[in-house]
UniProtKB/TrEMBL annotation:
Belongs to the MoeA family. This is Molybdopterin molybdenumtransferase. Keywords: Magnesium, Metal-binding, Molybdenum, Molybdenum cofactor biosynthesis, Transferase. Catalyzes the insertion of molybdate into adenylated molybdopterin with the concomitant release of AMP. It comes from Leucobacter chromiireducens subsp. solipictus. SMART domains: MoCF_biosynth. Residues 1-60 are annotated as: Disordered.
Length: 483
């Protein structure tokens, strides 16, 4: 296996963004350095002797990395999302809208779970003492009279000594019984008489070939949770199982944090609205529904709007919808070319734009939209669909997941490359890919317009800044999309 090859980290245009500070402050290019020199085996008769060359590092080149930008984004977003903790709303436990929300307060169980001793099986409730000299598990036929039947939902009855009372799963254990024998262990292995409380008394008998242990197939009161035990902690994301637990404990409504409200603004004269026939030079609007789906899936309330490449149009959307938002996300109009309308409008509000050492997703914008002191955080992504989607995953999704009580990152793994791959040394490259049958990683092309590629991807693979080549068999960090 060949070594990772590092290349010259040529300067990345800084545009108007100031240098950063922090643990990821811009500095020398990152690199992969082998621990020593490696030799390839010499074949018989082969006089060639190959040696891995150490990676070439160009020192002193300052770049702004995606880690720098991540740190800056979190410094803007985290305080804004933390402020939402002061705003709560009550939602009924049986309301489907509760799923995925975040509990504002801790909740303890008002009752023990289960609230009474109940049967784990369909069978017969018995007293172990009625098996006489046969101790628990001992063999020997015991014949008992059939008692009154208890079904799920009945009130607890009193157990008559010397009887075996038919009982159904979930039914309360009759007072005085201390074990349940499953119907399959009875002789006959079926219910022959089922007489409820108001029915005539049963007359038959049933036989058992072994004595049960005390407590056999009995679910004791409070064996799941004691009264006063925690049900959920503050900040817990409400999954289906947690909602079921709350309902089981008799909780009827819950205070949850308000969802982040996001204004999504997509721009571009070339972008056609849904249902509009594509004219010359036009493309369908992928970014608006794609980013809306991502943010909604991570717990945000999204108000999505489109604007042509006209400053007045962008200003109108911001003025109408910006003051109610906790975050403004834009797509398109931020590069260095002409007609970059988002950059033109928001630069006047103090939003900073510039390039980072990332492919795709190099152009980025970050700051605040602050008319009348509103100070709404702004995150600006490129317009190419793959660039926009990956920018959202790298920079926005972790903060939304944290606010929604989820793990911040996609599942991370390290796998083996199935083939060699080249990457620009001056960029941290994020490639899409899939697994082969052996679990190795196959990468697809790097272009930022390959949306079908992204839709079919099982993983995002990361090639670090400073590395321009990875041979087949190299380990590579991946973020999994398939789990």
């Amino acid at each position: 296996m060949g070594a990772p090859r590092t290349g010259h980290a040529r300067g990345v245009a800084q545009r108007s963004c100031p240098p950063l500070r922090g643990r990821h402050a811009a500095g020398a290019s990152q690199r992969l350095v082998p621990r020593g020199r490696h030799r390839t085996p010499r074949r018989r008769g082969d006089q060639r002797h190959h040696r891995r060359r150490p990676p070439r590092i160009r020192r002193g080149v300052s770049v702004r990395t995606h880690l720098d930008h991540t740190e800056r984004v979190r410094a803007v977003l985290d305080p804004a999302f933390a402020a939402l903790a002061d705003e709560t709303e009550l939602i009924a436990v049986h309301d489907p809208a509760l799923a995925g929300r975040v509990a504002a307060h801790a909740v303890v169980s008002p009752i023990p779970l289960p609230p009474f001793d109940n049967s784990q099986m369909d069978g017969y409730a018995v007293r172990v003492a009625d098996f006489g000299e046969f101790g628990p598990g001992a063999r020997g036929v015991t014949e008992l009279r059939i008692g009154r039947t208890t079904a799920a939902g009945d009130a607890a009855a009193s157990h008559e000594a010397g009887t075996a009372a038919p009982i159904m799963t979930g039914a309360p254990i009759p007072a005085g019984a201390d074990a349940v024998i499953p119907i399959e262990q009875a002789d006959p292995a079926r219910f022959t008489e089922l007489r409820r409380a108001d029915d005539p008394a049963p007359r038959g008998t049933v036989r058992f070939r072994a004595a049960p242990a005390p407590g056999a197939f009995v679910r004791p009161r409070g064996s799941d949770l004691a009264a006063g035990a925690p049900l959920i902690a503050a900040g817990t994301r409400l999954t289906p199982a947690r909602i079921g637990l709350l309902a089981n404990a008799g909780v009827t409504e819950l205070a949850v944090h308000r969802r982040p409200r996001v204004l999504l603004l997509s721009t571009g004269d070339e972008v056609a609205a849904p249902g509009t026939p594509l004219g010359p030079g036009h493309v369908g609007d992928a970014n608006t529904p794609m980013l809306t789906a991502l943010m909604t899936g991570l717990g945000a309330e999204v108000s999505a709007h489109r604007a042509p490449d006209l400053p007045d149009a962008v200003e109108r959307v911001l003025a109408a919808h910006g003051p109610a938002a906790d975050l403004i996300v834009t797509s398109g109009g931020i590069s260095a070319g002409a007609f970059e309308v988002v950059r033109e409008v928001l630069t006047d509000h103090g939003v900073e734009f510039g390039g980072i050492a990332l492919q795709p997703g190099g152009p980025q914008g970050l700051g605040y939209w602050d008319p009348d002191g509103a100070r709404v955080p702004v995150l600006c992504f490129p317009g190419n669909p793959v660039s926009s989607a990956l920018s959202a995953e790298l920079f926005l999704a972790p903060a939304l997941r944290a606010a929604a009580g989820r793990p911040e990152r996609l599942p991370v793994d390290t796998r083996e490359l199935a083939h060699a791959v080249d990457s620009p040394a001056q960029k941290h490259q994020v490639r899409r890919g899939r697994f082969d049958a052996a679990g190795r990683v196959h990468l697809t092309g790097p272009s930022s317009h390959l949306l079908a590629d992204l839709a079919a991807a099982e993983l995002l693979a990361h090639i670090p800044l400073g590395v321009d080549h990875l041979p087949a068999g190299s380990p590579i960090e991946i973020w999994r999309l398939d789990v």
